[in-house]
Amino acid sequence: MGIVVFFLVFTAVSTTLAVLLASVMGYLAVWIVWVSFLAGMAVGFYGYSSSKSLSLSLRPVSFFDGFMLVAFTVFCLRHFLWVYYYRDGGMRILDQYNFSDMPLHLTNVAYFVRGTEFWPDNPIFASLKMHYPFGVDFFTAMWVKIGVPVDRAMQLVGLGGGLLVGIALFIWGRAFALAAFLFSGALHGFQIFLNIPLTDYVTELPWKNLALTLLIPQRGFLFGFSAGLLLLWSWRRRFLTQDKPLPGFVEICLWGLMPLFHFHTFLFLTYIYLIWFLVSGKWTRENLGIALGVSIPALIESFVLTDGFRLASLVWWKPGWLIEGRPLYFFIANFGLWMPLLFLALVFAYRKRRSPKPESDGKLPASCFWHHLWPALLLWAALFFVMLMPWDWDNMKLMVWCYLLILPAVDSLVIQKIPKGWRFLVFFFLFFSGFAVVVSSVGREQKGSEVIRLEELDEVCTIARKMNPGDTVLIYPTFNHPILLCGYKVVAGYGGHTWSHGLPSAEIENKIRRIYLGEKDWKGILREFGPRYLFWGPYERWAYSESTRPWEDEATATLIARGKWGTIYDLSKAYTLQDDQENLTPR
After folding, report:
1. Cα angle 404-363-252, degrees, rounded to a multiple of 5
2. For residue 241, what is the DSSP state?
C-alpha cells in the first residue's frame, strides 16, 4: 500500500507545484521541474511512511487473481509501450480509439515543453485560456523538459499509470474487479461465433471496452482511476467498516488535487464522500476537516479549469441518453448478464442493509454493500437524463465510476454464492465478449494507423523552432497537423476536440474557411483572430482547393519557409496596413 501511495502523492504534489511555479514565473523552466520533483518525493515519502502499515486484509492469491494480474500487466505492456511508435517512416497509433486523442496529448506535451506563457492559452483554440484537466500531460512534459525523449516519457508515464490502475483495481475488488474492467464492454465480441473478424474492434454500442476507450486514450484516467479507487477503498474503511483508512493528508492530496487531472472523477468522489459522510453518522472532526482541507485547492482548480464555473452551462437535458427508442435491445446489447446480477445484488443488499455480519469473504460487513449500490444506481439513472458535456457519450466518464462502485457488491453478494462450476459459465457470459475484443486489440495483426510522416514532422518542427512560443498559427483544423505536434497553438484545432470541450468550433471553422478562400471579408476575419503565421500545406490544399491565396501578396505576408511539407507565411504586414482606420498586432 505504501508504495502506491508514494507514487500517487508524488505525481499529484509535483505536478500541482510545477503548475503553480510556472504560473508565477510565466513558463515551465527546468529548475521548476527539479524543485517540484524533490518536493513531490518528500511529501510522497511521508505518505509512504504513514501508509505502509495499513493492512489490506487480502485473501490468499487464487489462480483467478494471478491470471488477471498477469493479463492486465500484458495489456498495459502491449498498449502503453506501443501507445505510439515509428514504422516505415511514419508515426503510428496502435489503439483505434486513441487515433485522434493521442495527437492532442502530444500537442499539449510539446506546447508545455516549448515554454508557453502561463496561464496558457488553449493550443487548439488560441483565443481562450486552457480549461482542460491537463495534469497527466503536464506531468509528462516535466519529464521531457529534463531530457527524457517524448516517446519514452509518454510510454513510461502510461505504463506506470496503467499498472497503478491495475493494482488499485485489485485492492478495490480483487480479480473480479480487474476482469470486469479489462474485459468489459457490450456483446460485440460474440460476433466471433458468426465468423465476423474482430480486428476492427470499434463498435457503435455506447458501452464499449473501458480499458480501450477510457484508460488508453483518456490519459487523465491514469491518475483518476488509481487515485479514485484508492480513495474509495479508504473511505469505505473510514465510513462503512471499522478498518483503518489512509491518513487524512493523503486523502486531501489525492482528492483535493484531482480536478487538475480528471474533473469527472473529482465530481464523483465528492458525491460519494458527501453521501457516505452523511449516512454513516461519523461526523467527526477529522472527517469534516478532510472535506474542508480539500475545499481550498479543489475550488481554486475548479474555478480556473471551468472558466469561473461558466462551463456549467454545458449541462443539458436528454432523456434516454443513447437508448434511441429501443430500451430492451439497448440494455441487453450493452449490459447483457450484468442487469440481472445487479438486480439480485440490490435485493440481497437491501435485505441485509442493517446486518453487521461479514459476507462469505469474511472481510466486509453485508450492510456496507447497500451503500455501494444505491448511490451508484441513483447517479447512473440520473446520467440517462442529464448530459454534462456537448458529446452525450462523455457521460461514460461518470458512468464508469458507478460501474466500479457496484463491483464488490455484485461479487460478494451474488458471484461468490454461485457454485464454482456454474460460476465459470457466468464468467463466460460476463467477460468473453470483452476478452475477445481485448485479444483482437493486442494481436500481431493490429499494425495501428499512421498519424503523420516523420520527415514532414521533423522539417516543420525545425522551422517552427525559430518562431516565438507565443505565436499563433492559422491551419486547417485537424488533429494531426504538424504545427500542432510541434507544440504551437493554432486559431482552431480539430473540430471533434474543440466541440467536445464546449468551444464554438463550427463558427470558427467557417471563418477559417473564408480566410483561406480569400472571400471579401477575409482580412477583417484575419484581424479578428490575429494569427502571426499562416500555414499552407497538404491539408489546406485539399480542404481549400479553390482558394485564390490572396495572402501571397508581398504587401500582406512574407514567405519564411517552403518545402515538400508546405509553406509558412508571416502575416505581420497584414496588421500594419490600415483597414477601416484600425491597427492591430498579431498574436
Report:
1. 55
2. S
Helix or strand (DSSP H, E) at 453:
strand 449-453
Looking at the chain, the whole-number percentage of residues with pLDDT higher than 90 is 66
Query: Who contacts 433 (Cβ-Cβ below 8 Å, separation ≥6)?
Result: 183, 185, 186, 187, 188, 189, 190, 336
Angle at 104 between CA 78 and CA 470, to 5 degrees: 140
| Residue 250 near residue 5, CB atoms below 8 Å | yes
Distance from C-alpha of 571 to C-alpha of 576, rounded to nearest angstrom? 10
Q: What is the CB neighbour count within 10 angstroms for residue 302?
A: 21
| 320 φ/ψ sector (left φ>0, alpha ψ -120 to 50, else beta) | left
347 Cβ contact partners less than 8 Å away, ≥ 6 residues apart = none
Q: Select from 562, 583, 561 the least CA-distant residue to 572.
A: 583
Q: What is the pTM assigned to this prediction?
A: 0.93
Give residue 426's identity as a one-letter amino acid code.
Answer: V
Angle subtended by helix axes 101-113 and 150-182, to nearest 10: 140
Cross-strand pairs, 566: 563
**Residues making up the chain, counted from first to last:** 587
Note the pLDDT tens digit of each residue in 532-553: 999 999 999 999 999 989 888 7
Runs of H (alpha helix) within 384-537: 396-413, 420-442, 454-464, 482-485, 495-500, 505-517, 522-529
Please report, for the chain, the start and end positions of each structural domain, with discontinuous segments joined by +.
Answer: 2-94+131-442, 451-576
Q: What are phi and psi of 538, to 5 degrees?
A: -60, -45
Q: Which among 68, 353, 28, 356 is positioned nearest to 184, based on CA atoms?
A: 68
* 279-333 tens-digit pLDDT: 998 999 999 999 999 999 999 998 888 777 666 557 888 999 989 888 888 999 8
Cα distance between residue 201 and residue 208, in whole Å:
10
The three-state secondary structure class of 116 is coil
Q: Return the C-alpha cell found at 445.
A: 495483426
CA proximity to 79, closest of 214, 266, 257:
214
Q: Which three cell numbers stand for residue 387?
A: 448530459
